[in-house]
Design goal:
The structure holds two protein chains of two kinds. By secondary structure, chain A is an alpha+beta fold. Chain A has six helices and eight strands; from the N terminus they run αβαββαββαβααββ. The longest helix of chain A has 21 residues. The radius of gyration of chain B is 38 Å and the shape is elongated. Chain B: Belongs to the VPS36 family.
Chain lengths: 174, 401
């Protein structure tokens, strides 16, 4: 299956980190949106840095360009600084990462909107119901990673829109 | 043997004469007969050696000195008696190897004596080296005979009074004297050489005007000239020759000198700059200016100062230093912005460019091409693709798309 990538992916300079500041900002921006789109379409929520470095995303075989491991880390760090990525395990090693194509807060508000729309405020529902339930069909968060879901709900908790049960099995929306 | 002379002052070197080498424990043979010196032979002035033959002596071993002119044999015990043999008399050298009871010897065959054809003495003398060293001595002697220093000095004597040098004994003093003498000689030779150079400089002006007249002739006949080589020759000539170069002598020192120099630089470089895209590295400028000036060469520092004085002199030429430290002269009509725009156009035209490709396409040096691409990148007009094969520059689509 051939991937659909934006034009930058076929532009050789895209695979060299640009020294010119403004250009670099634009370049990283392009990388960010490309990675997030890619992960979303492939339902990737966490990855091994080395593995993803080999993927078609970072290696364009047609123009024979690939992002070097050092530059890849720069790009991932940029993702992290924008809240789309979190290192798994010790941050120093930077070998595995969680990727949030939506940030937990965004997921949270998405789920809250959905809960409100379905009249689930002030009721208790299980986490299973949110990601796998009948009501959740056709929702973006269907099949969402458990860890990410909990993070999203914790964000709602902070906003006093929901309360997570201690066993982390159920949640109550307000 | 009668060709030797005995003198009390034999150890004193003549003008232009210098000590080459010395040997210890040398015996002198006249033919096959050993020569002996006696203390009694303390007669001042020159005397034929025959005079001393009858005397008995124990002094048969002496020191042998080789100078550029003579062989001098003497015994330190008889301070004032020196036997000297002028080198021109020696016609042929031979070596006698030593044996168990025999010292190695050098045989000197001498030219037949003038007048005294009836002389009973042999036509050769032998030098016996008891402590060896005859090989080296022979080689030195051979060299001295080849060089014929005595002839040179005779010629110098004929030329001027400077030949009368203070006289000095042999030994370390003599060696020092000979060294001093040599360096003096070298000095005069060098200053002579510089006199020649001055003459050449005097000739430079007519030469330059000649070149100018040729070039103007060629210019007049421009229509007829079609041959490529002639055209090239013309361009060489046109780029050559400042008839009246600005020097410190004519234009003083300090800023006024640099301003005048700046004018001259502009005059020389205006045309070449137009042709090469309005920019030239400072090294190229240095070469071109100095070639045009011919002999009145400029130092790099003077050139740099003159370039700094360009704006002051009100000339449309500027010294510009890139962030990388490369300095160039550029016409003010070709500003940095205009240049970046040009680079950008070139990039868009070809899609992407390496430094070499740009240098070829625009006919500029690789250094300049690199600077142009880098400054285009810095301004955001270009972006790079750094791979193992080459550093390639592309139009900056990141910012434009």
């Amino acid at each position: 299956m051939t991937e659909e990538f934006p034009w930058q992916h076929a532009f050789p300079p895209f695979f060299t980190l640009q020294p010119h500041e403004q250009t670099r900002v634009k370049q990283l921006e392009a990388w960010r949106s490309m990675i997030l789109d890619y992960c979303q379409s492939h339902q990737i929520t966490q990855f091994d840095v080395q593995e993803i470095g080999q993927s078609a995303l970072f290696h364009n075989k047609t123009i024979q360009r690939r992002l070097s491991p050092e530059d890849l880390l720069v790009v991932l760090e940029d993702l992290r600084s924008h809240g789309h990525l979190e290192w798994d395990g010790p941050a120093k090693s930077r070998r595995k990462a969680h990727i949030y194509w939506r940030r937990p807060e965004e997921w949270g508000s998405l789920i809250y909107n959905w809960a409100q729309a379905h009249g689930m405020t002030n009721t208790v529902c299980t986490l299973f119901e949110i990601t796998q339930g009948d009501d959740a069909q056709d929702q973006a968060f269907q099949g969402l990673d458990q860890d990410l879901l909990i993070k999203a709900l914790k964000c709602l908790e902070l906003e006093s829109k929901a309360e997570l049960f201690p066993d982390q099995e159920g949640v109550k929306f307000f | 043997m009668d060709r030797f002379s005995l003198s009390a002052n034999g150890g004193i070197l003549a003008a232009g004469e210098f000590l080459i080498t010395s040997g210890d424990n040398v015996k002198l043979y006249d033919g096959h007969q050993k020569v002996k010196l006696m203390e009694l032979v303390l007669i001042p002035g020159d005397l034929p050696l025959k005079a001393c033959h009858p005397f008995q002596t124990k002094f048969e071993i002496g020191e042998l000195h080789l100078t550029s002119h003579r062989l001098i044999w003497h015994n330190p015990a008889i301070e004032s008696a020196h036997l000297s043999l002028p080198l021109p008399l020696v016609v042929f050298l031979e070596e006698e190897t030593g044996g168990l009871m025999k010292s190695p010897k050098i045989v000197l065959h001498l030219a037949p004596a003038h007048g005294s054809g009836a002389s009973p003495t042999a036509n050769f003398v032998k030098l016996s080296f008891k402590q060896g060293g005859e090989k080296q001595f022979k080689a030195k002697l051979h060299d001295a005979l080849e060089q014929k220093q005595w002839e040179i000095v005779v010629r110098q004597k004929a030329r001027g009074p400077s030949a009368s040098m203070p006289k000095m004994r042999t030994g370390i003093g003599g060696i020092e004297r000979s060294i001093a003498q040599k360096s003096k000689l070298r000095d005069t030779e060098i200053s002579k050489a510089f006199q020649d150079l001055e003459k050449l400089m005097e000739m430079a002006k007519p030469m330059v005007s000649l070149a100018k007249s040729i070039s103007s002739k060629i210019r007049d006949r421009q229509g007829e000239v079609s041959d490529d080589e002639t055209v090239q020759f013309k361009s060489y000539l046109l780029s050559l020759g400042i008839s009246d170069p600005v020097t410190r002598d004519t234009h003083g020192t300090g800023q006024s000198y640099y301003r005048e120099l700046a004018k001259e630089i502009f005059w020389i470089l205006d045309q070449p700059l137009q042709e090469s895209g309005g920019m030239m590295t400072l090294t190229d400028v240095f070469c071109r200016v100095n070639r045009a000036r011919g002999l009145e060469l400029l130092s790099p520092e003077d050139l740099l100062n003159a370039c700094k004085a360009l704006p002051e002199a009100g000339l449309p030429l500027r010294l510009y230093t890139f962030d990388t430290g490369v300095s160039v002269l550029q016409l003010t009509s070709h500003t940095q912005e205009a240049l970046i725009l040009k680079t950008k156009e070139a990039l868009e035209q070809s899609g992407s460019l390496t430094v070499e490709e740009l240098s070829k396409a625009s006919g500029i040096s690789v250094i300049l091409a690199k600077e142009r691409l880098l400054s285009a990148e810095r301004s955001g007009a270009a972006c790079r693709d750094d791979t193992v094969e080459a550093l390639r520059f592309y139009p900056n689509k990141f910012l434009t798309c």
